[in-house]
Amino acid sequence: MKDALPDNDTLYHALLTRDGAWEGRAYVGVTSTGVFCRLTCPARKPKQANCVFVGSVAEAMRAGFRACKRCHPMGPEAQGDPGVARLLKALEAAPEERWSEARLRAQGYDPSTVRRAFQRHFGMSFLEMARQSRLRLGAAALPKGKVIEAQMDAGFSSPAAFRAAFGKWLGLAPGRFAKDALLRAELIDTTLGAMIVVASAQAVHLLEFTERRALPGELRRLYDHAKGSLGFGRFAPTDRIEQELAAFMRGDSPQFTTPLAPLGPPFAQKVWTALRTIPAGETRSYSGLAAQMGRPDATRAVARANGANPIAIAIPCHRVLGADGALTGYGGGLWRKQALIEMERAYAREKTGVEG
Fold it and tell me: What is the pTM of this model?
């Protein structure tokens, strides 16, 4: 359950002082302008009488407010936290670096504050994110050489530590990935972070952000489904989905025509098919999607299938919101769901011819 907001006086004081503690937890709608902002927005502060405080972007939008063009409240929330932004930039510049609490303290950060901020924005700590960054380097090296070379690229001090960390991340030890496999996994970069694609020569079977907690289980299921024929590399569908993702995130096209073959039971397959009928720029509730499928009694089952979707973005589970319009339940992180919905607003404006 979402925490209740405090009284308006407390939130107005937070607005005046640009208190970053409320980042992603509260927003202000300004009735005199029709705009909603982060509480850290640098714009001139409105009178308290003109302020409406809400707990989510969706709530602000449902109340008829439009996003501020200075603080971009519909953008990834992490961009509004300077400490998070600096650490992300450092990690991007040197993904092979080993981070620790001692190193964070030496650079002037409080490890507990950093941990809370990253957990709030990304659902994982900064140290876990840095560790995954090094593991991705190792995964990229595996198709080109031996495990020992991948371990060195990832900056692990021992093969055993690398194998254990890699197995925890992807659900399979590096030595279990086969050569010349029927299914091949490839890491790709997107503007919303690294993703892993698993494809056959005919279709994409999995597309996930690399820190999704369900990823190890999903890869193990594909491994079992392929009777162990899962390796590293790419097929033509990998290239095609990568190109379509890039076009989508540039704002060029919301269309995904790459053949998709997600692994799942029949009811989940029906849900995933229904998700693909939601146009870019539109959203549905779980109950609305269930009704659309002719199963108004299956809202919970629809929600479970939505959460189990193994193909992010191309099967747009991010277009489904809670009954109250809240940005609930997204395995890639709510900040990404928020960013995807904002990206798609441009497609909706294009379709209607309305200027934003």
Answer: 0.67
